[in-house]
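Final report, Chapter 2: Outcomes

The project's central promise was a pipeline that accepts a single protein chain and returns its three-dimensional structure in a standardized token representation, suitable for archiving and comparison. That pipeline is now operational. To close this chapter, we reproduce one record exactly as it appears in the project archive, with the input sequence first and the structure output second.
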Amino acid sequence: MGRGIAQVAALAGLRTVLTDLSAEALAKASASIASSLEKGVEKGKTPREAAEAARSLLSTSTDLAAAAAAADLVVEAVFEDLALKEDLFRRLDAAAPPAAILASNTSSLPLTRIAAATRRPGKVIGMHFFNPVPVMPLLELVRTAETSGETLAAALAVGKRLGKETIVVRDSPGFATSRLGLAIGLEAMRMYEEGVASARDIDRAMELGYRHPMGPLRLTDLVGLDVRLAIADHLAKELGTDRFAPPGILRRLVAKGKLGRKSGEGFYRWEGEQALEKQP
């Protein structure tokens, strides 16, 4: 998701540095962003001048400290692992200027715990984007008890500049969107497991019947089945309820390495960006 966030930031005229441990991953991300920008131009959604300006504002680096050294805002988008995020925020706190805001793209983990890893909890906020970032209009802002009013105001301003519609929620398990979205997603998985309907027809039921832009199983493939499993386990534990207990099919697919689009197969079989229905 980091590449999508970087793309919309650069398109909004913000100088953006995309970071990763892997130079190869950064090269792939840059190519993906360039392709996405070109498609926007071809479809008439993005002026060529804007796409070229975005490319000039975007750079990459494998040096996290150097990338954060002059940042006004850092948006973290690593895997949903609390220990990993806590460690990263400690490093960002040491590297970024004292006035910089540190934001997490977490979709469910306790932001208060993440903020506690820093010496600036008032400048930590959740900025939860949605896949695909250039298309999805929502930005969920998550504030802790210590997030300052100035930090929230700055995040709201950034969201507006990125062209996003923002909602503000307090730090609680799953926030608003993950609790709602995961509840639908897990039920869709149970229906698929029970043979109620095919993956495509379950998705079409939500797309055509409830005007969802994307069905829950295809969305799960885009998000990553491993990510959804981690969120479900977290919510089931934190909320003390079996409403979010992961279905067996989700655990089995993850155990087999079938994680969705990134692995080539999940609830669908993927050929590039195209989702193909699996044979029973």
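Archive annotation: The chain has a mean pLDDT of 96.
This record, like all others produced under the grant, will remain available to the consortium after the project formally closes.
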